[in-house]
Amino acid sequence: MYTDTNSRICYNASMTEIEKFLTDIQKTIKYERQNSGKVDYNKISKNIRNLFERNAAIPGLSASVFEYWENSCIYNSTDEEPSEKSCLKLAAMLAFLQDDDEFSEELNDDDWNELGRLVNFESEDLDLDVLQNLMKILVSKGAY
To answer: What is the rounded distance in angstroms from the CA atom of residue 71 to the CA atom of residue 69?
Structure first.
């Protein structure tokens, strides 16, 4: 992955699943901008949510994580569309749910603490192996 002169994220042919996810978000935003002239998040939110939840593949927890991201990065922002920074944060959350540390530097202590709270809340419904992997990451990030 690299950033071009316009500070947009660009990818090479051997992109990771997380990078592909980011590319798909950018395509969704670009498509909406081309069709409407500007981006209305309400029109693309369902597509981004479905993309996130499909890639995360942890029912319940992925929906909760997406809602946290949406509330903290979209609804508390003055931007009309998801910013590059907020997309990177969502990608980091997806990587976390996939037991990967890609883009983890995009998450701050508050994010890790909230992810820990969400994992605790959903823990009864999680596969034990998934729960253990998520807990290891959370402990390493100081969320517990």
So the answer is: 6
Residue 51 to residues 23, 44, 48, 75, Cα–Cα distance (Å):
11, 11, 5, 19
Quickly count helices (H) and strands (E) in the chain.
6, 2
pTM of the model: 0.87
And the tokens for 104? Answer: 């983890």
∠ CA 24-58-21, rounded to 5°? 10
User: Counting Cβ atoms within 10 Å, is residue 25 exposed (0-12), middle (13-18) or buried (19+)?
Assistant: buried
* C-alpha pair distances (Å), 72 with each of 27, 30, 48, 144: 22, 22, 15, 21
Q: Give the pLDDT confidence of 32-71 residue by residue, as tens digits.
A: 888 878 888 989 999 999 999 999 999 999 999 999 999 9
Greatest Cα pair distance in the chain: 47
Kindly report the backbone phi and psi dihedral angles of residue 107, in degrees, each rounded to the nearest multiple of 5, phi listed first. -100, 135
Identify whether the C-beta of residue 94 lies closer than 8 Å to the C-beta of residue 68: no
